[in-house]
TrEMBL record:
<dbReference type="InterPro" id="IPR013357">
    <property type="entry name" value="Acetaldehyde_DH_acetylating"/>
</dbReference>
<dbReference type="Pfam" id="PF00171">
    <property type="entry name" value="Aldedh"/>
</dbReference>
<keyword id="KW-0560">Oxidoreductase</keyword>
<dbReference type="InterPro" id="IPR016163">
    <property type="entry name" value="Ald_DH_C"/>
</dbReference>
<dbReference type="InterPro" id="IPR016161">
    <property type="entry name" value="Ald_DH/histidinol_DH"/>
</dbReference>
<dbReference type="InterPro" id="IPR016162">
    <property type="entry name" value="Ald_DH_N"/>
</dbReference>
<protein>
    <submittedName>
        <fullName>Acetaldehyde dehydrogenase (Acetylating)</fullName>
    </submittedName>
</protein>
<dbReference type="InterPro" id="IPR015590">
    <property type="entry name" value="Aldehyde_DH_dom"/>
</dbReference>
<feature type="domain" description="Aldehyde dehydrogenase">
    <location>
        <begin position="11"/>
        <end position="272"/>
    </location>
</feature>
<dbReference type="GO" id="GO:0016620">
    <property type="term" value="F:oxidoreductase activity, acting on the aldehyde or oxo group of donors, NAD or NADP as acceptor"/>
</dbReference>
């Protein structure tokens, strides 16, 4: 008998949550040393399979570059592990002897992980590591277009964890994912926190689930080449970053904003690094391919090489083309090149000065990247600091590759594959998500201040007595009105009489 796919998906999800809940209860009793042994084993196993998982991901999704996905898997395993290995996540994690406060960590319980098709294996590894480090279980819903490679990554992590002593089922997944099962997962009574990396609809669903949730917004990242920058070095970094894994990282640059003073040199360097400039009919063809309807990205171009995209649009480009660029002077949902494209396609904007650059960057961010990231290349620290203070983003990379700099590969930002966008982007945090976001902290606080509690004053007592008298009057009035003809005597008259009587006998 053939069961309905959605029913199979739903049952698989419920079974995985049940197992993860039971496993987590056992895992919660692990010591810090036992937890650290599990996490180290998982990180090593995932790192060893970095290239294998990258090959699976490219084969299944047709997105990205094997060598680049290998690096992402290495960041998601080794770099993440190195950044969290010394974190205290069990028992007393901090003691403030001066203020007599001790902090204790305790886990959420079961984590629901939503994984994107653009970074399927690296994100699965990363979310598993930070969940296990914090004594949580995790159940993952892969993207339907990347289910095989995501599940394989999770199996590698699960098996390594179990070999290191973790209970069976501590890492779970849905091998037949469906939207109903994913929706039910994030609402399940035994799921306690959600890590949502994916499309806007899924992130909104996570936030409306009634559970604590960490989601991310879109990353329409501008990169500003300020006139003081080293143009040759800056352009090479931008091109390398934009073409890294064919633009599938959400922190990848989406539009270049260039000072007029260095435009000619920058364009020459872009061409030297494999950029092809689209004009006229070519630009129109690619624009229609990028966005068939206003504000809607064509998913068929995501993570594809520039030459493949040009071929899809019917545009001939040289064989060494690495990215496609079109000059723009407008921003909007009906301007395809100004959108987040998740592919090696750039819009290029020219500005006269820093003030215009700020306005241009904010306009691009307002289109769909508020709160995420911005990149700037400059040798003027004051300008960098000004952008850091004024731009509505959560991270600003200076003189580095934005795509991998934001996730901590070329910067000292916390290595992470889930980047919060703060209140600018409607997120609860602006951090790179890591272990501290998956633990609760309770605090033991000793009394350190003596406080004398004053006794009630005479005036307070009089207020109480007066209030009692008012209640007595109202009670007598109510009794009298029940016994008299209210057509002849009104309540106000009765009130006056009762008050006089009470005053006489007090």
């Amino acid at each position: 008998m053939e069961f309905d796919h959605d029913l199979q998906s739903m049952q698989e999800m419920r079974t995985a949550v049940k197992k993860a809940k039971a496993a987590q209860k056992d895992y919660e009793a692990f010591s810090q040393e036992e937890v650290d042994r599990v996490v180290a084993a998982v990180a090593e196993a995932a790192y060893d399979k970095s290239k294998y998982l990258a090959e699976l991901a490219v084969e299944e999704t047709s997105m990205g570059v094997v060598e680049h996905k290998t690096i992402k898997n290495q960041v998601g395993s080794k770099d993440v592990y190195e950044s969290i290995k010394n974190d205290k996540t069990v028992g007393a994690i901090h003691e403030d002897s001066a203020n007599k406060i001790t902090e204790f960590a305790y886990p959420f319980g079961v984590v629901a992980g939503i994984i994107p098709t653009t970074n399927p294996t690296s994100t699965a590894i990363f979310k598993t590591l930070i969940s296990l480090k914090t004594r949580n279980g995790i159940v993952v819903s892969p993207h339907p277009s990347a289910v095989k490679c995501t599940v394989e990554a999770l199996k590698i992590c699960h098996d390594a964890a179990v070999r290191a002593g973790a209970p069976e089922g501590i890492v779970g997944w849905i091998s037949k994912p469906s939207m109903p099962a994913t929706t039910e997962l994030i609402k399940h009574r035994d799921v306690h926190v959600i890590l949502a990396t994916g499309g806007g609809g899924l992130v909104r669903a996570a936030y409306s689930s009634g559970k604590p949730a960490y989601g991310v917004g879109p990353g329409n990242v501008p990169v500003y080449l300020e006139k003081s920058c080293n143009v040759k070095k800056a352009v090479k970094m931008v091109v390398d970053s934009k073409t890294f894994d064919n633009g599938t990282i959400c922190a990848t640059e989406q539009a270049i904003v260039i000072d007029q003073n260095i435009k000619e040199m920058a364009v020459r360097e872009l061409k030297n690094n494999g950029a092809y400039f689209l004009e006229g009919a070519e630009k129109e063809k690619v624009a229609k391919l990028i966005s068939p309807a206003p504000g809607k990205l064509n998913p068929n171009i995501v993570g594809r090489p520039a030459r493949k995209i040009a071929e899809m649009a019917g545009v001939d480009v040289p064989p060494d083309t690495r990215l496609l660029i079109a000059e723009e002077n407008q921003v909007g949902k009906d301007v395809p090149f100004s959108l987040e494209k998740l592919s090696p396609i750039f819009a290029l904007y020219t500005v006269d000065n820093v003030d215009q650059a700020k306005e241009q960057c904010i306009e691009l961010l307002n289109l769909g990247g508020r709160g995420h990231s911005l990149s700037i290349h400059t040798n003027d620290d004051q300008i960098a600091r000004m952008f850091g203070e004024e731009m509505p983003v959560s991270r600003l990379m200076v003189n580095t590759l934005s795509s991998i700099g934001a996730v901590g590969a070329t910067t000292n930002l916390k290595p992470s594959l889930t980047l919060g966008c703060g209140s600018y982007g409607g997120n609860i945090t602006s951090d790179n998500i890591t272990t501290r976001h998956l633990i609760n902290i309770k605090r033991l606080a000793y009394g350190v201040k003596e406080v004398e509690i004053p006794k009630p004053s005479a005036s307070t007592q009089n207020v109480k007595e007066n209030h009692k008298e008012e209640n007595d009057v109202e009670k007598v009035i109510s009794e009298v009105l029940k016994k008299v003809d209210t057509d002849e005597v009104d309540a106000q008259t009765v009130s006056a009489i009762v008050s006089k009587v009470l005053q006489k006998y007090q």
